[in-house]
Design a protein that fits this description.
Elements lengths: L11 H11 L4 E6 L2 E6 H17 L7 E5 L4 H12 L3 E4 L6 H11 L1 E7 L3 H5 L10 E5 L10 E2 H6 L15 E6 L9 E5 H11 L12 E4 L6 H4 L1 H8 L2 E4 L6 H11 L3 E4 L1 H12 L11 E5 L5 H11 L2 E7 L6 E4 L8 H9 L2 E3 L4 E5 L14 E6 L16 E2 L2 E10 L4 E7 L4 E3 L2 E3 L1 H8 L5 E11 L3 E10 L7 H8 L11 E4 L13 H9 L6 E2 L1
Parallel strand pairs: 1-11, 3-4, 3-5, 4-8, 5-6, 6-7, 10-11, 10-12, 12-13, 13-14, 25-26
Antiparallel strand pairs: 1-2, 8-9, 14-15, 15-16, 16-21, 17-18, 18-20, 19-20, 20-21, 22-23, 24-25, 26-27
Bound molecules: adenosine-5'-diphosphate.
């Protein structure tokens, strides 16, 4: 028997219409060098309609790729809403990539138009010669003497009327594409559909996940070029959540000011950002984080000390999320179950998260056999579901899939209630004397020491044990803490044979284009003898 329900496609244009009507007065705030500016959802949606008309006049049609090279700001939101709704495909470019990576990605995606923030035009100028598919470059902001022919975003919009007639599309049509950062091999494109975006947004509003709602105002620190700002732009319009866009003001101090001035209830970003916010707050006479009731930290392991510091010093709950570009990204959120209190509550927040409805998960061993969900058996996480990718755009990668499941490359355990614990990415694991040491656990533990600001652990070759951990530490300002003291500190938390004997103290740790510790770069520095290492 077939159901009698109506058949309506899940389209991004309907998320736009919903936010435009139901939450017309909600605002999007953007930080600028001269202060905060804002626009309402209604205004933003009307401007998105004008943009769609302008893009159509420029010849953009179904399936054409429209790229952005932009910070988090209101204009970027307008492009987010307009491009998929008109049937074209939004392609967000990571402004921290090397020029040759950008060239590769733009050509591979066959981008027709790029919308660029004025202060990023110099970056585009460096690659302009090599991106033949791009027909128009639209600049957001004043650009009196551009190094090449550009169109002005505001002028384009002024020439059009609102009221664009969003087309009927198929819910499986491509809506957005993102490239993985290419830490292993060439960057690979992942294509999200209208349907996958819809379902992912809906899941993000669940009280069992991030619970975006119209009672929230969200500080969106995660870049809009990093997996769609974790879906927050579309979820915000669906749920009526206001957004604060920090543009390039991503240090602890300006974020602290934005929080006390604009009073967000929710904030999204990678752990390194929140570490810097904690530092800035500790150096401020009266830090005010009182508006925040939760922070979603994800993209990398969240250290226990960070969860405790936000709770004990500022009364803010830290939620951890797990995901990747291939998974839209949200798969799991570490909301502690009801009735769990005290340290046990924190034990749950330290996990990567509990898997959301809609995603299927399993753990497999090296032979590909499924291992038990008992919180003890270790394996690689494999996923499938309506917002998990089934392939890559224009690239064959059969080794990343198994029988229709996406192989994540993340290793860990799964408990009987669906909570994931990540021990490592497979390429970061340390094999010592035939046993695995978790670099994630070592670095998140050592970061709990008061004299440690940041730490990352990599494997180094060892004649006897095959590999041993090297711990690279950034001390807090003024600290002289020694390797012996840190090893002693670690010894109360981890097994003796895990304790690193190799230590290096540095001024800063290399970060990836989305702000995570860059272990590949650390391995290179070590291999080329650029790290000063002491061995105990
Ligand atoms: P990149 O490869 O640039 O890091 P992604 O943002 O897609 O690109 O990263 C996904 C990876 O980030 C995951 O495979 C996982 O290794 C890591 N990750 C994400 N969330 C967490 C988390 N909560 N704990 C540990 N690792 C995480």
């Amino acid at each position: 028997m077939r159901s009698t329900m109506q058949d309506a496609p899940l389209l991004i244009r309907d998320i736009v219409r919903h936010g435009q009507w139901m939450y017309a007065d909600k605002e999007i705030f953007t930080a600028t060098p001269t202060g905060i500016v804002s626009g309402t959802f209604a205004e933003v949606a009307l401007r998105a309609e004008r943009l769609a008309a302008a893009l159509t006049r420029l010849g953009v049609s179904r399936d054409d790729r429209v790229a952005t090279l932009m910070w988090n700001n209101q204009t970027h939101m307008e492009v987010y809403l307009a491009v998929p709704s008109m049937g074209a495909i939004l392609h967000t470019l990571n402004l921290r990539l090397f020029p040759d990576q950008l060239v590769f990605i733009i050509n591979h995606a066959d981008d027709k138009v790029i919308v660029v923030d004025a202060n990023l035009v110099p970056l585009l100028a460096r690659i302009k010669e090599h991106i033949g598919s791009v027909r128009h470059i639209i600049v957001n902001g004043s650009m009196p003497d551009a190094p090449f022919e550009v169109l002005d975003y505001e002028e384009l919009l002024e020439a059009e009327e609102p009221g664009f007639d969003w087309p009927d599309l198929d819910e499986d049509d491509a809506a957005v594409m993102c490239y993985t950062s290419g830490t292993t091999g060439e960057p690979k494109g992942v294509v999200y559909s209208h349907r996958s975006t819809w379902l992912h947004s809906l899941a993000s509003t669940s009280a069992n996940s991030i619970a975006f709602s119209d009672r929230d105002r969200c500080l969106l620190v995660v870049p809009m070029f990093h997996v769609n700002a974790w879906g927050a732009a579309y979820t915000a319009f669906m749920a009526g959540t206001e957004l604060i866009m920090p543009q390039m003001f991503l240090q602890g101090e300006p974020l602290l000011n934005m929080i006390s001035e604009l009073r967000p209830t929710l904030a999204l970003g990678v752990p390194t950002i929140w570490n810097d916010l904690l530092r800035a707050a500790s150096e401020h006479p009266h830090p005010d984080l009182s508006s925040l009731n939760r922070i979603l930290a994800g993209g990398a392991a969240v250290p226990r000390f960070m969860i405790e510091a936000f709770r004990d010093r500022h009364g803010v709950d830290v939620l951890q999320g797990w995901g990747m570009t291939e998974t839209s990204p949200l798969v799991a959120v570490s909301l502690p179950p009801r009735g769990v209190t005290g340290d046990r509550e924190t034990d749950y927040r330290v996990k990567a998260g509990r898997v959301m409805a809609g995603v299927e998960i399993r753990l497999t061993n090296e032979e590909g056999a499924v291992v038990p969900r008992d919180g003890a058996a270790v394996g690689e996480f494999e996923l499938r579901g309506p917002w998990i990718t089934g392939s890559y755009y224009g690239a064959d990668a059969p080794e990343l899939f198994r029988d229709g499941w996406l192989r994540t490359g993340d290793i860990g355990t799964l408990d009987p209630h669906g909570f994931m614990v990540i021990t490592d990415r497979s390429k970061d694991m340390i094999k010592s004397g035939g046993e695995w040491i978790s670099s994630v656990q070592l670095e998140t533990t050592v970061m709990g020491h008061d004299d440690v600001y940041e730490a990352a652990v990599i494997a180094v070759a060892d004649d006897r044990w095959h590999e041993r951990p090297l711990c690279v530490v950034v001390r807090t300002p003024g600290s002289q803490v020694s390797a012996e003291e840190l090893r002693e500190y670690l010894s109360t938390f981890v097994a003796k044979w895990w304790l690193p004997e190799h230590w290096s103290f540095v001024e800063t740790l290399p970060k990836t284009s989305v702000g995570k510790f860059n272990k590949r770069e650390l391995r290179r520095l070590y291999a080329e003898g650029e790290l000063e290492v002491s061995t105990l």
